[in-house]
Protein backbone atom coordinates (compact mmCIF):
# COMPACT_ATOMS: atom_id res chain seq x y z
CA UNK A 1 0.00 0.00 0.00
CA UNK A 2 1.32 3.32 -0.94
CA UNK A 3 2.35 5.56 1.88
CA UNK A 4 0.72 8.92 2.19
CA UNK A 5 2.81 11.78 1.08
CA UNK A 6 4.16 14.37 3.36
CA UNK A 7 2.38 17.63 2.82
CA UNK A 8 5.61 19.34 2.39
CA UNK A 9 6.41 17.11 -0.47
CA UNK A 10 3.06 17.78 -2.28
CA UNK A 11 2.97 19.80 -5.45
CA UNK A 12 2.20 23.46 -4.67
CA UNK A 13 -1.31 24.71 -5.74
CA UNK A 14 -1.60 26.61 -8.99
CA UNK A 15 -1.87 30.38 -8.58
CA UNK A 16 -5.33 31.95 -9.10
CA UNK A 17 -5.80 33.30 -12.62
CA UNK A 18 -6.09 37.05 -13.04
CA UNK A 19 -9.35 38.28 -14.73
CA UNK A 20 -8.78 39.02 -18.45
CA UNK A 21 -8.35 42.61 -19.37
CA UNK A 22 -10.48 42.15 -22.53
CA UNK A 23 -12.30 39.66 -24.66
CA UNK A 24 -9.06 39.07 -26.53
CA UNK A 25 -7.52 37.51 -23.45
CA UNK A 26 -10.25 34.89 -23.39
CA UNK A 27 -10.75 34.13 -27.08
CA UNK A 28 -8.02 34.19 -29.64
CA UNK A 29 -8.31 37.13 -31.96
CA UNK A 30 -8.54 35.05 -35.07
CA UNK A 31 -11.81 33.49 -33.76
CA UNK A 32 -13.78 36.74 -32.96
CA UNK A 33 -15.18 37.46 -36.47
CA UNK A 34 -17.90 34.76 -36.41
CA UNK A 35 -19.35 36.29 -33.25
CA UNK A 36 -19.40 39.78 -34.76
CA UNK A 37 -20.94 38.41 -37.93
CA UNK A 38 -23.76 36.77 -36.02
CA UNK A 39 -24.39 39.87 -33.94
CA UNK A 40 -24.37 41.98 -37.07
CA UNK A 41 -26.89 39.78 -38.78
CA UNK A 42 -29.16 39.91 -35.75
CA UNK A 43 -28.93 43.70 -35.56
CA UNK A 44 -29.47 44.06 -39.33
CA UNK A 45 -32.47 41.75 -39.28
CA UNK A 46 -33.99 43.64 -36.39
CA UNK A 47 -33.40 46.93 -38.20
CA UNK A 48 -34.89 45.57 -41.41
CA UNK A 49 -37.96 44.36 -39.58
CA UNK A 50 -38.30 47.70 -37.85
CA UNK A 51 -37.89 49.51 -41.17
CA UNK A 52 -40.41 47.29 -42.86
CA UNK A 53 -42.87 47.72 -40.04
CA UNK A 54 -42.61 51.46 -40.54
CA UNK A 55 -42.63 51.53 -44.35
CA UNK A 56 -44.41 48.39 -45.68
CA UNK A 57 -47.88 48.98 -47.09
CA UNK A 58 -50.86 47.25 -45.53
CA UNK A 59 -53.54 46.62 -48.23
CA UNK A 60 -56.25 46.98 -45.60
CA UNK A 61 -55.01 50.34 -44.35
CA UNK A 62 -56.57 53.26 -46.20
CA UNK A 63 -56.06 56.99 -46.03
CA UNK A 64 -59.11 59.09 -46.86
CA UNK A 65 -57.76 62.29 -48.41
CA UNK A 66 -60.86 64.13 -49.64
CA UNK A 67 -60.44 67.88 -49.83
CA UNK A 68 -63.65 69.62 -48.81
CA UNK A 69 -62.66 73.13 -47.78
CA UNK A 70 -59.27 71.59 -46.93
CA UNK A 71 -58.22 68.17 -45.62
CA UNK A 72 -59.38 66.80 -42.29
CA UNK A 73 -55.89 66.93 -40.79
CA UNK A 74 -55.70 70.59 -41.76
CA UNK A 75 -58.67 71.37 -39.54
CA UNK A 76 -61.49 71.31 -42.11
CA UNK A 77 -64.66 70.36 -40.25
CA UNK A 78 -66.61 69.30 -43.38
CA UNK A 79 -63.68 67.14 -44.55
CA UNK A 80 -63.42 65.61 -41.08
CA UNK A 81 -67.12 64.83 -41.05
CA UNK A 82 -66.86 63.20 -44.47
CA UNK A 83 -63.70 61.25 -43.56
CA UNK A 84 -65.22 60.06 -40.26
CA UNK A 85 -68.37 58.86 -42.02
CA UNK A 86 -66.47 57.15 -44.83
CA UNK A 87 -63.95 55.74 -42.35
CA UNK A 88 -66.78 54.30 -40.27
CA UNK A 89 -68.17 52.58 -43.38
CA UNK A 90 -64.74 51.17 -44.24
CA UNK A 91 -64.14 49.96 -40.68
CA UNK A 92 -67.51 48.18 -40.68
CA UNK A 93 -66.32 46.27 -43.76
CA UNK A 94 -63.04 45.24 -42.13
CA UNK A 95 -60.60 47.87 -43.40
CA UNK A 96 -58.32 50.05 -41.31
CA UNK A 97 -58.88 53.72 -42.10
CA UNK A 98 -56.17 56.13 -40.95
CA UNK A 99 -57.50 58.13 -38.00
CA UNK A 100 -56.34 61.25 -36.26
CA UNK A 101 -55.51 61.61 -32.58
CA UNK A 102 -52.14 59.85 -32.70
CA UNK A 103 -49.30 62.45 -32.64
CA UNK A 104 -47.19 60.28 -34.96
CA UNK A 105 -50.03 60.04 -37.48
CA UNK A 106 -50.68 63.78 -37.38
CA UNK A 107 -46.95 64.53 -37.74
CA UNK A 108 -46.72 62.30 -40.83
CA UNK A 109 -49.79 63.95 -42.37
CA UNK A 110 -48.73 67.50 -41.61
CA UNK A 111 -45.07 67.12 -42.66
CA UNK A 112 -45.63 65.26 -45.96
CA UNK A 113 -45.47 67.21 -49.20
CA UNK A 114 -48.68 65.61 -50.44
CA UNK A 115 -51.30 63.05 -49.24
CA UNK A 116 -49.67 60.16 -51.14
CA UNK A 117 -46.35 60.71 -49.37
CA UNK A 118 -48.18 60.80 -46.05
CA UNK A 119 -50.08 57.61 -46.88
CA UNK A 120 -46.85 55.77 -47.68
CA UNK A 121 -45.25 57.00 -44.47
CA UNK A 122 -48.23 55.66 -42.54
CA UNK A 123 -48.06 52.27 -44.25
CA UNK A 124 -51.38 52.65 -46.05
CA UNK A 125 -51.93 50.35 -48.99
CA UNK A 126 -54.57 52.59 -50.60
CA UNK A 127 -55.53 56.24 -50.69
CA UNK A 128 -58.97 57.61 -51.58
CA UNK A 129 -58.56 61.08 -53.06
CA UNK A 130 -60.95 63.74 -54.30
CA UNK A 131 -61.09 67.48 -54.43
CA UNK A 132 -64.65 68.56 -53.81
CA UNK A 133 -64.76 72.23 -54.69
CA UNK A 134 -68.49 72.97 -54.36
CA UNK A 135 -70.16 75.47 -56.62
CA UNK A 136 -71.75 77.86 -54.14
CA UNK A 137 -75.05 79.40 -55.17
CA UNK A 138 -76.24 82.08 -52.77
CA UNK A 139 -79.96 82.47 -53.35
CA UNK A 140 -81.48 85.93 -52.93
CA UNK A 141 -83.72 85.15 -49.97
CA UNK A 142 -84.13 87.64 -47.15
CA UNK A 143 -82.70 85.32 -44.48
CA UNK A 144 -80.06 84.05 -46.91
CA UNK A 145 -79.78 80.58 -48.44
CA UNK A 146 -76.73 78.67 -49.65
CA UNK A 147 -76.90 75.86 -52.18
CA UNK A 148 -73.77 73.75 -52.74
CA UNK A 149 -73.23 71.59 -55.82
CA UNK A 150 -70.48 69.03 -56.37
CA UNK A 151 -69.46 67.15 -59.50
CA UNK A 152 -65.95 65.72 -59.13
CA UNK A 153 -63.83 62.59 -59.70
CA UNK A 154 -62.86 60.33 -56.80
CA UNK A 155 -59.68 58.27 -57.22
CA UNK A 156 -58.61 55.01 -55.56
CA UNK A 157 -54.82 54.52 -55.76
CA UNK A 158 -52.78 51.43 -54.81
CA UNK A 159 -49.63 52.98 -53.41
CA UNK A 160 -47.20 50.08 -54.03
CA UNK A 161 -47.77 50.22 -57.79
CA UNK A 162 -49.22 53.70 -58.19
CA UNK A 163 -52.19 52.29 -60.15
CA UNK A 164 -55.50 54.14 -59.93
CA UNK A 165 -59.17 53.88 -60.81
CA UNK A 166 -61.53 56.85 -61.07
CA UNK A 167 -65.29 57.41 -60.75
CA UNK A 168 -67.35 60.58 -60.53
CA UNK A 169 -69.50 61.54 -57.59
CA UNK A 170 -72.21 64.18 -57.62
CA UNK A 171 -74.25 65.78 -54.91
CA UNK A 172 -75.87 68.89 -53.56
CA UNK A 173 -77.16 70.39 -50.34
CA UNK A 174 -78.73 73.58 -49.09
CA UNK A 175 -79.19 75.48 -45.84
CA UNK A 176 -79.59 79.01 -44.52
CA UNK A 177 -76.00 78.88 -43.24
CA UNK A 178 -73.02 77.92 -45.37
CA UNK A 179 -71.46 75.82 -42.59
CA UNK A 180 -74.66 73.83 -42.22
CA UNK A 181 -74.88 73.29 -45.99
CA UNK A 182 -71.26 72.04 -45.99
CA UNK A 183 -72.04 69.59 -43.18
CA UNK A 184 -75.05 68.21 -45.03
CA UNK A 185 -72.99 67.88 -48.20
CA UNK A 186 -70.25 65.98 -46.34
CA UNK A 187 -72.76 63.45 -45.01
CA UNK A 188 -74.27 62.79 -48.42
CA UNK A 189 -70.93 62.47 -50.22
CA UNK A 190 -69.51 59.82 -47.87
CA UNK A 191 -71.92 57.13 -49.08
CA UNK A 192 -71.31 58.08 -52.69
CA UNK A 193 -67.54 57.92 -52.22
CA UNK A 194 -67.79 54.43 -50.74
CA UNK A 195 -70.01 53.27 -53.59
CA UNK A 196 -67.51 54.70 -56.08
CA UNK A 197 -64.51 52.71 -54.76
CA UNK A 198 -65.68 49.58 -52.96
CA UNK A 199 -65.97 47.25 -55.96
CA UNK A 200 -62.54 48.24 -57.32
CA UNK A 201 -61.03 48.00 -53.84
CA UNK A 202 -62.28 44.46 -53.23
CA UNK A 203 -61.30 43.38 -56.75
CA UNK A 204 -57.72 44.63 -56.41
CA UNK A 205 -55.09 41.82 -56.53
CA UNK A 206 -53.62 42.82 -53.15
CA UNK A 207 -57.02 42.44 -51.47
CA UNK A 208 -58.00 39.39 -53.49
CA UNK A 209 -54.82 37.72 -52.24
CA UNK A 210 -56.33 38.01 -48.77
CA UNK A 211 -59.89 37.01 -49.66
CA UNK A 212 -58.62 34.00 -51.66
CA UNK A 213 -55.99 33.04 -49.07
CA UNK A 214 -56.04 30.79 -46.02
CA UNK A 215 -55.45 33.25 -43.19
CA UNK A 216 -58.53 32.63 -41.05
CA UNK A 217 -58.26 35.89 -39.10
CA UNK A 218 -58.00 38.02 -42.24
CA UNK A 219 -60.81 36.10 -43.93
CA UNK A 220 -63.05 36.70 -40.93
CA UNK A 221 -62.05 40.35 -40.89
CA UNK A 222 -63.15 40.88 -44.52
CA UNK A 223 -66.20 38.61 -44.36
CA UNK A 224 -68.53 41.61 -44.08
CA UNK A 225 -66.90 43.32 -47.05
CA UNK A 226 -67.16 40.18 -49.18
CA UNK A 227 -70.85 39.81 -48.37
CA UNK A 228 -71.46 43.49 -49.02
CA UNK A 229 -69.78 43.48 -52.44
CA UNK A 230 -71.49 40.24 -53.43
CA UNK A 231 -74.92 41.56 -52.38
CA UNK A 232 -74.17 44.90 -54.03
CA UNK A 233 -73.37 43.29 -57.38
CA UNK A 234 -76.41 41.02 -57.20
CA UNK A 235 -78.78 43.86 -56.28
CA UNK A 236 -77.43 46.22 -58.92
CA UNK A 237 -77.77 43.49 -61.54
CA UNK A 238 -81.28 42.81 -60.33
CA UNK A 239 -82.19 46.49 -60.56
CA UNK A 240 -80.74 46.86 -64.05
CA UNK A 241 -82.56 43.72 -65.16
CA UNK A 242 -85.84 44.95 -63.68
CA UNK A 243 -85.64 48.25 -65.58
CA UNK A 244 -84.82 46.46 -68.84
CA UNK A 245 -87.55 43.86 -68.41
CA UNK A 246 -90.27 46.38 -67.52
CA UNK A 247 -89.27 48.67 -70.37
CA UNK A 248 -89.47 45.76 -72.83
CA UNK A 249 -92.95 44.89 -71.57
CA UNK A 250 -94.16 48.47 -72.04
CA UNK A 251 -92.54 48.76 -75.46
CA UNK A 252 -93.94 45.41 -76.63
CA UNK A 253 -97.49 46.51 -75.76
CA UNK A 254 -97.20 49.34 -78.28
CA UNK A 255 -96.50 46.85 -81.07
CA UNK A 256 -93.71 48.89 -82.60
CA UNK A 257 -95.79 52.03 -83.16
CA UNK A 258 -94.06 54.05 -80.44
CA UNK A 259 -90.45 55.27 -80.33
CA UNK A 260 -89.08 55.74 -76.82
CA UNK A 261 -86.68 58.68 -76.48
CA UNK A 262 -85.84 58.62 -72.75
CA UNK A 263 -83.62 56.14 -70.86
CA UNK A 264 -85.36 53.15 -69.27
CA UNK A 265 -85.23 54.51 -65.70
CA UNK A 266 -85.88 58.18 -66.50
CA UNK A 267 -88.13 60.66 -64.78
CA UNK A 268 -88.67 63.07 -67.69
CA UNK A 269 -91.51 65.55 -68.11
CA UNK A 270 -92.35 66.96 -71.54
CA UNK A 271 -92.11 70.75 -71.51
CA UNK A 272 -92.74 71.52 -75.18
CA UNK A 273 -91.53 71.12 -78.74
CA UNK A 274 -89.72 73.31 -81.25
CA UNK A 275 -87.98 72.95 -84.59
CA UNK A 276 -85.77 69.86 -84.55
CA UNK A 277 -86.40 68.76 -80.98
CA UNK A 278 -88.14 69.15 -77.68
CA UNK A 279 -87.73 70.59 -74.18
CA UNK A 280 -87.76 68.28 -71.19
CA UNK A 281 -87.48 68.51 -67.42
CA UNK A 282 -85.41 65.74 -65.86
CA UNK A 283 -85.05 64.31 -62.37
CA UNK A 284 -82.45 61.56 -62.78
CA UNK A 285 -82.12 58.88 -60.10
CA UNK A 286 -79.13 56.54 -59.70
CA UNK A 287 -79.31 53.23 -57.85
CA UNK A 288 -76.67 52.27 -55.28
CA UNK A 289 -76.30 49.67 -52.52
CA UNK A 290 -76.38 51.33 -49.11
CA UNK A 291 -73.85 50.21 -46.51
CA UNK A 292 -76.29 51.30 -43.81
CA UNK A 293 -79.45 49.51 -44.96
CA UNK A 294 -77.60 46.79 -46.92
CA UNK A 295 -80.21 47.28 -49.62
CA UNK A 296 -80.77 49.31 -52.75
CA UNK A 297 -81.18 53.05 -52.29
CA UNK A 298 -81.65 56.06 -54.57
CA UNK A 299 -79.31 58.93 -55.28
CA UNK A 300 -81.16 61.87 -56.83
CA UNK A 301 -79.31 64.22 -59.14
CA UNK A 302 -80.15 67.91 -59.45
CA UNK A 303 -83.11 68.49 -61.72
CA UNK A 304 -82.49 69.98 -65.14
CA UNK A 305 -84.30 71.58 -68.04
CA UNK A 306 -82.84 70.49 -71.36
CA UNK A 307 -83.19 70.89 -75.09
CA UNK A 308 -82.94 67.51 -76.82
CA UNK A 309 -82.67 66.83 -80.55
CA UNK A 310 -85.51 64.65 -81.79
CA UNK A 311 -83.24 62.43 -83.87
CA UNK A 312 -80.97 61.31 -81.01
CA UNK A 313 -81.88 59.05 -78.06
CA UNK A 314 -81.29 60.73 -74.72
CA UNK A 315 -78.91 59.55 -72.00
CA UNK A 316 -79.04 60.28 -68.25
CA UNK A 317 -77.80 63.73 -67.26
CA UNK A 318 -74.95 62.09 -65.32
CA UNK A 319 -73.62 60.43 -68.49
CA UNK A 320 -70.55 62.15 -70.05
CA UNK A 321 -72.37 62.14 -73.43
CA UNK A 322 -75.38 64.04 -72.05
CA UNK A 323 -76.21 67.41 -73.55
CA UNK A 324 -75.46 70.47 -71.44
CA UNK A 325 -78.65 71.49 -69.64
CA UNK A 326 -80.26 74.89 -70.01
CA UNK A 327 -80.89 74.99 -66.28
CA UNK A 328 -79.92 72.92 -63.25
CA UNK A 329 -81.34 73.20 -59.75
CA UNK A 330 -82.87 71.55 -56.72
CA UNK A 331 -86.50 71.33 -57.85
CA UNK A 332 -88.87 72.57 -60.55
CA UNK A 333 -92.25 73.14 -58.97
CA UNK A 334 -95.14 72.12 -61.26
CA UNK A 335 -94.78 71.93 -65.05
CA UNK A 336 -92.53 74.31 -66.97
CA UNK A 337 -93.58 75.45 -70.43
CA UNK A 338 -91.71 76.50 -73.54
CA UNK A 339 -92.25 79.61 -75.61
CA UNK A 340 -94.41 78.66 -78.58
CA UNK A 341 -92.33 80.53 -81.13
CA UNK A 342 -88.88 80.53 -79.56
CA UNK A 343 -86.23 78.82 -77.49
CA UNK A 344 -87.10 79.96 -73.98
CA UNK A 345 -88.68 78.09 -71.09
CA UNK A 346 -90.57 79.44 -68.09
CA UNK A 347 -90.30 77.47 -64.85
CA UNK A 348 -91.02 77.78 -61.16
CA UNK A 349 -87.81 77.25 -59.21
CA UNK A 350 -88.10 75.88 -55.69
CA UNK A 351 -85.38 77.02 -53.23
CA UNK A 352 -85.55 73.96 -50.97
CA UNK A 353 -89.03 75.05 -49.82
CA UNK A 354 -87.83 78.45 -48.62
CA UNK A 355 -89.06 80.39 -51.63
CA UNK A 356 -90.40 80.02 -55.16
CA UNK A 357 -89.38 81.92 -58.26
CA UNK A 358 -90.70 82.54 -61.72
CA UNK A 359 -87.63 82.01 -63.89
CA UNK A 360 -87.11 82.34 -67.63
CA UNK A 361 -84.20 80.48 -69.25
CA UNK A 362 -83.08 80.14 -72.85
CA UNK A 363 -81.25 77.41 -74.76
CA UNK A 364 -77.87 79.07 -74.19
CA UNK A 365 -78.32 78.73 -70.41
CA UNK A 366 -79.00 82.40 -69.75
CA UNK A 367 -81.63 82.67 -67.03
CA UNK A 368 -83.54 85.44 -65.31
CA UNK A 369 -85.57 85.30 -62.13
CA UNK A 370 -88.64 87.39 -62.85
CA UNK A 371 -90.14 87.06 -59.38
CA UNK A 372 -88.97 85.63 -56.05
CA UNK A 373 -91.39 85.06 -53.17
CA UNK A 374 -90.94 83.17 -49.87
CA UNK A 375 -94.69 82.67 -49.33
CA UNK A 376 -96.56 82.47 -52.64
CA UNK A 377 -96.69 79.29 -54.70
CA UNK A 378 -96.53 79.77 -58.46
CA UNK A 379 -97.95 77.06 -60.72
CA UNK A 380 -98.04 76.37 -64.48
CA UNK A 381 -96.12 79.35 -65.92
CA UNK A 382 -96.67 80.11 -69.62
CA UNK A 383 -94.63 82.48 -71.77
CA UNK A 384 -96.34 84.66 -74.34
CA UNK A 385 -95.11 84.53 -77.96
CA UNK A 386 -92.23 86.97 -78.13
CA UNK A 387 -91.46 86.36 -74.45
CA UNK A 388 -92.45 89.78 -73.12
CA UNK A 389 -95.02 88.44 -70.63
CA UNK A 390 -95.46 85.34 -68.49
CA UNK A 391 -98.77 84.19 -67.06
CA UNK A 392 -98.96 81.97 -63.98
CA UNK A 393 -101.29 80.66 -61.33
CA UNK A 394 -100.51 82.30 -58.00
CA UNK A 395 -101.50 80.75 -54.67
CA UNK A 396 -100.96 83.21 -51.79
CA UNK A 397 -100.59 80.19 -49.47
CA UNK A 398 -100.91 76.42 -49.64
CA UNK A 399 -104.64 76.33 -48.90
CA UNK A 400 -105.71 79.30 -51.02
CA UNK A 401 -107.38 79.16 -54.41
CA UNK A 402 -105.15 80.12 -57.30
CA UNK A 403 -105.23 83.63 -58.72
CA UNK A 404 -104.25 84.40 -62.29
CA UNK A 405 -101.28 86.74 -62.64
CA UNK A 406 -99.37 88.16 -65.62
CA UNK A 407 -95.89 89.63 -65.18
CA UNK A 408 -93.65 91.68 -67.43
CA UNK A 409 -90.53 89.54 -67.85
CA UNK A 410 -88.23 92.57 -68.08
CA UNK A 411 -88.80 93.92 -64.59
CA UNK A 412 -91.18 91.46 -62.95
CA UNK A 413 -93.98 94.00 -62.69
CA UNK A 414 -97.49 92.61 -62.35
CA UNK A 415 -99.54 93.87 -65.30
CA UNK A 416 -102.69 91.84 -64.71
CA UNK A 417 -104.21 89.99 -61.79
CA UNK A 418 -107.48 88.12 -61.53
CA UNK A 419 -108.29 87.33 -57.93
CA UNK A 420 -110.50 84.31 -57.45
CA UNK A 421 -112.77 85.22 -54.56
CA UNK A 422 -116.07 83.58 -55.52
CA UNK A 423 -114.48 82.64 -58.84
CA UNK A 424 -113.07 79.49 -60.38
CA UNK A 425 -110.29 79.15 -62.97
CA UNK A 426 -110.07 76.41 -65.60
CA UNK A 427 -106.84 77.09 -67.47
CA UNK A 428 -105.31 79.75 -69.70
CA UNK A 429 -103.48 80.08 -73.03
CA UNK A 430 -101.79 82.87 -75.00
CA UNK A 431 -103.44 83.82 -78.31
CA UNK A 432 -100.60 86.10 -79.37
CA UNK A 433 -97.91 88.34 -77.87
CA UNK A 434 -100.30 90.26 -75.61
CA UNK A 435 -103.71 88.55 -75.55
CA UNK A 436 -104.37 85.92 -72.93
CA UNK A 437 -107.43 83.67 -73.06
CA UNK A 438 -108.61 82.01 -69.85
CA UNK A 439 -111.54 79.97 -68.58
CA UNK A 440 -113.25 81.21 -65.44
CA UNK A 441 -116.57 81.30 -63.67
CA UNK A 442 -117.28 84.94 -62.76
CA UNK A 443 -119.35 84.04 -59.70
CA UNK A 444 -119.10 80.41 -58.64
CA UNK A 445 -121.37 81.02 -55.65
CA UNK A 446 -124.28 81.77 -58.01
CA UNK A 447 -123.73 78.62 -60.12
CA UNK A 448 -122.69 80.69 -63.14
CA UNK A 449 -121.49 78.87 -66.28
CA UNK A 450 -117.82 79.03 -67.30
CA UNK A 451 -116.73 81.80 -69.65
CA UNK A 452 -113.87 81.91 -72.09
CA UNK A 453 -112.50 85.38 -71.52
CA UNK A 454 -109.72 87.41 -73.14
CA UNK A 455 -107.52 90.19 -71.75
CA UNK A 456 -105.03 92.22 -73.77
CA UNK A 457 -102.25 93.00 -71.28
CA UNK A 458 -100.56 95.30 -73.79
CA UNK A 459 -103.40 97.81 -73.70
CA UNK A 460 -104.28 100.34 -71.04
CA UNK A 461 -106.67 100.50 -69.35
CA UNK A 462 -107.08 96.75 -69.03
CA UNK A 463 -110.48 95.21 -69.65
CA UNK A 464 -111.73 91.64 -69.65
CA UNK A 465 -113.82 90.56 -72.63
CA UNK A 466 -116.12 87.58 -72.26
CA UNK A 467 -116.87 86.58 -75.85
CA UNK A 468 -117.83 82.96 -75.16
CA UNK A 469 -120.02 81.34 -72.53
CA UNK A 470 -120.57 77.63 -71.97
CA UNK A 471 -124.06 76.19 -71.90
CA UNK A 472 -125.75 75.72 -68.53
CA UNK A 473 -124.45 72.59 -66.83
CA UNK A 474 -121.30 72.49 -68.98
CA UNK A 475 -117.73 72.77 -67.82
CA UNK A 476 -114.77 74.05 -69.83
CA UNK A 477 -111.13 73.29 -69.05
CA UNK A 478 -107.63 72.86 -70.50
CA UNK A 479 -107.74 75.60 -73.17
CA UNK A 480 -104.98 75.61 -75.80
CA UNK A 481 -104.49 77.97 -78.72
CA UNK A 482 -103.39 77.31 -82.29
CA UNK A 483 -100.02 78.73 -83.32
CA UNK A 484 -101.70 81.60 -85.21
CA UNK A 485 -104.19 82.31 -82.41
CA UNK A 486 -107.23 81.82 -84.63
CA UNK A 487 -108.55 78.78 -82.77
CA UNK A 488 -108.92 77.63 -79.19
CA UNK A 489 -109.52 74.03 -78.18
CA UNK A 490 -111.08 73.13 -74.82
CA UNK A 491 -112.33 70.02 -73.09
CA UNK A 492 -116.10 70.10 -72.56
CA UNK A 493 -117.87 68.16 -69.81
CA UNK A 494 -121.65 68.01 -69.55
CA UNK A 495 -124.53 66.67 -71.62
CA UNK A 496 -122.37 66.63 -74.76
CA UNK A 497 -118.85 65.85 -73.52
CA UNK A 498 -115.98 66.03 -75.92
CA UNK A 499 -113.55 68.47 -77.49
CA UNK A 500 -114.71 71.96 -78.39
CA UNK A 501 -112.91 73.96 -81.08
CA UNK A 502 -113.72 77.67 -80.94
CA UNK A 503 -113.06 80.16 -83.76
CA UNK A 504 -111.60 83.33 -82.17
CA UNK A 505 -112.95 85.52 -85.00
CA UNK A 506 -116.62 84.50 -84.66
CA UNK A 507 -116.46 82.82 -81.21
CA UNK A 508 -118.52 79.96 -82.53
CA UNK A 509 -117.71 76.45 -81.49
CA UNK A 510 -117.87 72.93 -82.81
CA UNK A 511 -117.90 70.01 -80.40
CA UNK A 512 -116.34 66.67 -81.35
CA UNK A 513 -117.37 63.62 -79.37
CA UNK A 514 -114.56 61.86 -77.50
CA UNK A 515 -115.95 58.49 -76.31
CA UNK A 516 -113.06 57.79 -73.94
CA UNK A 517 -113.05 61.30 -72.52
CA UNK A 518 -110.34 63.89 -73.17
CA UNK A 519 -107.67 65.88 -71.35
CA UNK A 520 -104.83 68.21 -72.30
CA UNK A 521 -105.63 68.83 -75.98
CA UNK A 522 -102.99 70.37 -78.26
CA UNK A 523 -103.17 71.64 -81.85
CA UNK A 524 -100.97 70.47 -84.69
CA UNK A 525 -98.85 73.24 -86.27
CA UNK A 526 -101.42 73.69 -89.07
CA UNK A 527 -104.37 73.54 -86.62
CA UNK A 528 -105.94 70.72 -88.66
CA UNK A 529 -105.63 68.14 -85.89
CA UNK A 530 -105.82 67.91 -82.13
CA UNK A 531 -103.86 65.44 -80.01
CA UNK A 532 -105.28 64.59 -76.61
CA UNK A 533 -105.16 62.20 -73.69
CA UNK A 534 -108.01 59.68 -73.41
CA UNK A 535 -108.91 56.72 -71.23
CA UNK A 536 -107.38 53.38 -72.21
CA UNK A 537 -107.44 49.75 -71.12
CA UNK A 538 -104.92 50.10 -68.29
CA UNK A 539 -104.38 53.83 -67.94
CA UNK A 540 -104.62 56.56 -70.54
CA UNK A 541 -103.74 56.59 -74.24
CA UNK A 542 -102.88 59.26 -76.79
CA UNK A 543 -105.29 59.92 -79.65
CA UNK A 544 -105.50 62.34 -82.56
CA UNK A 545 -108.67 64.04 -83.82
CA UNK A 546 -108.86 65.13 -87.48
CA UNK A 547 -110.98 68.30 -87.47
CA UNK A 548 -112.00 67.94 -91.12
CA UNK A 549 -113.68 64.55 -90.62
CA UNK A 550 -114.11 64.19 -86.87
CA UNK A 551 -112.26 60.87 -87.06
CA UNK A 552 -110.29 59.86 -83.96
CA UNK A 553 -107.31 57.51 -84.15
CA UNK A 554 -105.50 56.11 -81.16
CA UNK A 555 -101.73 56.29 -81.36
CA UNK A 556 -101.10 54.15 -78.27
CA UNK A 557 -102.77 51.11 -76.69
CA UNK A 558 -100.49 50.20 -73.76
CA UNK A 559 -101.22 49.65 -70.09
CA UNK A 560 -99.11 52.61 -68.95
CA UNK A 561 -100.38 56.14 -68.39
CA UNK A 562 -99.64 58.18 -71.51
CA UNK A 563 -100.17 61.88 -71.19
CA UNK A 564 -99.38 65.50 -72.13
CA UNK A 565 -99.25 65.15 -75.95
CA UNK A 566 -97.46 67.73 -78.10
CA UNK A 567 -97.03 67.75 -81.88
CA UNK A 568 -93.51 67.94 -83.25
CA UNK A 569 -92.70 71.19 -85.08
CA UNK A 570 -93.17 69.52 -88.49
CA UNK A 571 -96.48 67.95 -87.44
CA UNK A 572 -95.38 64.43 -88.38
CA UNK A 573 -95.16 63.01 -84.87
CA UNK A 574 -96.82 63.42 -81.48
CA UNK A 575 -94.56 63.44 -78.43
CA UNK A 576 -95.89 62.48 -75.00
CA UNK A 577 -94.99 61.04 -71.61
CA UNK A 578 -95.24 57.34 -70.76
CA UNK A 579 -95.58 56.82 -67.02
CA UNK A 580 -95.53 53.58 -64.99
CA UNK A 581 -94.41 52.43 -61.54
CA UNK A 582 -90.70 52.09 -60.94
CA UNK A 583 -90.05 48.31 -60.76
CA UNK A 584 -87.24 48.77 -58.21
CA UNK A 585 -88.84 51.43 -55.95
CA UNK A 586 -92.55 50.93 -56.68
CA UNK A 587 -93.72 52.80 -53.57
CA UNK A 588 -91.33 55.71 -54.03
CA UNK A 589 -91.44 56.90 -57.64
CA UNK A 590 -92.75 56.47 -61.16
CA UNK A 591 -90.85 56.08 -64.39
CA UNK A 592 -91.66 58.83 -66.88
CA UNK A 593 -90.22 58.49 -70.38
CA UNK A 594 -90.68 60.71 -73.41
CA UNK A 595 -91.93 58.81 -76.46
CA UNK A 596 -93.27 59.66 -79.89
CA UNK A 597 -95.63 58.14 -82.42
CA UNK A 598 -96.04 58.90 -86.12
CA UNK A 599 -99.17 60.64 -87.34
CA UNK A 600 -100.60 59.33 -90.59
CA UNK A 601 -100.86 61.99 -93.30
TrEMBL record:
Per the record's keyword annotation, is Transmembrane included, yes or no? yes
- Lineage, top-rank taxon, reads Bacteria
Mind listing the UniProt keywords for this protein, alphabetically?
A: Membrane, Transmembrane, Transmembrane helix
Q: Does the keyword Membrane apply?
A: yes
Q: Where is this region: Disordered?
A: 1-22
**Membrane-spanning intervals of the chain:** 32-51
Q: What is this protein called?
A: Uncharacterized protein
Amino acid sequence: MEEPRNPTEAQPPAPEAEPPESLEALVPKRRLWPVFAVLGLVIAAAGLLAFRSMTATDPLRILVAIDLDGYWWEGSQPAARLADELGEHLAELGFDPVKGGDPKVMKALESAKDPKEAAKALGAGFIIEARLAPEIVEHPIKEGYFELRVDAPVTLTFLDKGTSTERRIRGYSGATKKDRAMALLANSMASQALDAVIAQLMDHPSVREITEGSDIKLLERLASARRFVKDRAANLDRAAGAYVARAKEIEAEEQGRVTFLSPQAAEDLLVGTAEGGYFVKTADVSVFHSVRSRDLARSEALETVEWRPLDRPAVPTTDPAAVKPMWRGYHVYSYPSSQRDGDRVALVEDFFGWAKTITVVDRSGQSKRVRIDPEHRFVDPKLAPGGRFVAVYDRPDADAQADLMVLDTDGGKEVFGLHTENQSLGGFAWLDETRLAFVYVPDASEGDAPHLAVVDVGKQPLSIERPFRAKPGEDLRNPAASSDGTKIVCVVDGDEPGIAVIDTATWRRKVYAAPGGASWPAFSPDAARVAFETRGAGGTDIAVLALSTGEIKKLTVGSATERVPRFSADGKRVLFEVRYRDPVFPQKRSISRIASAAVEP
